[in-house]
């Protein structure tokens, strides 16, 4: 009978450790799925913006056909955004896109008749709306990455999380911070 108490203690500790591992694993899976979902939201918004850009370029081209370099920069930035493979690539592409949009809107400001075009104004508003959605999606994604990375790094999770296949994720940060320090200027 004396051996029963130590055996029960060992079994209880094993059960507690098993419950802890089970709960931690499930929470890591949930966080990982949330981060994947948030990244998907970002890619949807980036694609939406990329789909709007050709229409915006065509609207501006009608008034400012000689601004070929601006249009090429926007087209190049659009292609770079669509081909971004992950948060780091998307961050670089986002910096380039912001610079290109600033140039495009600066060209548009020089043409009052373009500013009066209903089509241009609708496209411009759609771009602004999409930029807001990208910013919100980015905050949601980065919040999920912060939670997941913290959960992976804290003790005792750091001893087994990587062995279970969980790795820290990259934040979606724009590499060229100056490119987004001032949002594209839109005047109506």
UniProtKB/TrEMBL annotation:
<protein>
    <submittedName>
        <fullName>LemA family protein</fullName>
    </submittedName>
</protein>
<keyword id="KW-0472">Membrane</keyword>
<dbReference type="Pfam" id="PF04011">
    <property type="entry name" value="LemA"/>
</dbReference>
<keyword id="KW-0812">Transmembrane</keyword>
<feature type="transmembrane region" description="Helical">
    <location>
        <begin position="6"/>
        <end position="25"/>
    </location>
</feature>
<comment type="similarity">
    <text>Belongs to the LemA family.</text>
</comment>
<keyword id="KW-1133">Transmembrane helix</keyword>
<dbReference type="InterPro" id="IPR007156">
    <property type="entry name" value="MamQ_LemA"/>
</dbReference>
<dbReference type="InterPro" id="IPR023353">
    <property type="entry name" value="LemA-like_dom_sf"/>
</dbReference>
């Amino acid at each position: 009978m004396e051996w029963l108490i130590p055996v029960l203690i060992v079994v209880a500790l094993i059960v507690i450790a098993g419950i802890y591992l089970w709960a931690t694993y499930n929470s890591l899976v949930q966080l990982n799925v949330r981060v994947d979902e948030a990244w998907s939201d970002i890619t949807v918004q980036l694609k939406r913006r990329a789909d709007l850009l050709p229409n915006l370029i065509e609207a501006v081209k009608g008034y400012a056909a000689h601004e070929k370099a601006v249009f090429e920069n926007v087209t190049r930035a659009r292609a770079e955004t669509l081909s971004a493979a992950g948060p780091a690539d998307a961050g670089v592409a986002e910096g380039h896109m912001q610079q290109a949009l600033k140039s495009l809107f600066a060209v548009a400001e020089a043409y009052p008749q373009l500013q009066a075009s209903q089509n241009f104004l609708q496209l411009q508003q759609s771009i602004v709306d999409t930029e807001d959605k990208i910013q919100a999606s980015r905050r949601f994604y980065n919040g999920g990455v912060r939670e997941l990375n913290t959960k992976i790094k804290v003790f005792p999770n750091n001893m087994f999380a990587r062995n279970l296949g969980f790795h820290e994720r990259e934040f979606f940060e724009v590499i060229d911070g100056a490119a987004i320090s001032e949002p594209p200027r839109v005047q109506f």
